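TASK: fixed-backbone design
INPUT:
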């Protein structure tokens, strides 16, 4: 790629990112009082993180079945009130065991 094109692309990407972050700060001066909007903005990071993470979970393993088993184990552990670290470790361990068993078949 030519350096001049790269500089243009970089400038456009940086400007777009900056505008997305700056415009709400400039346009919204007072505290948001609408409960629906506040609730919506509260849950956006969780929704985006889920949308980005869940597909990667299913394609990170060699077998789709082991990924499903690991997700189910993680959901059960989270439902039972385990910490995030325990849920992650348990899910990884379950996927490792499932991959090992499926690989032997």
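OUTPUT:
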């Amino acid at each position: 790629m030519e350096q001049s094109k790269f500089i243009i692309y970089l400038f456009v990407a940086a400007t777009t990112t900056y505008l997305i972050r700056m415009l709400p700060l400039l346009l919204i001066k007072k505290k948001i009082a609408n409960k629906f909007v506040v609730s919506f903005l509260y849950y956006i990071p969780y929704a985006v993180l889920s949308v980005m993470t869940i597909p990667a979970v299913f394609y990170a393993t060699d077998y789709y079945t082991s990924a499903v088993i690991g997700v189910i184990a993680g959901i059960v552990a989270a439902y039972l009130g385990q910490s995030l670290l325990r849920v992650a470790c348990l899910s990884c361990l379950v996927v490792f065991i499932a991959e090992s068993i499926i690989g032997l078949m």
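COMMENT: The CA atoms of residues 64 and 70 lie 10 Å apart.
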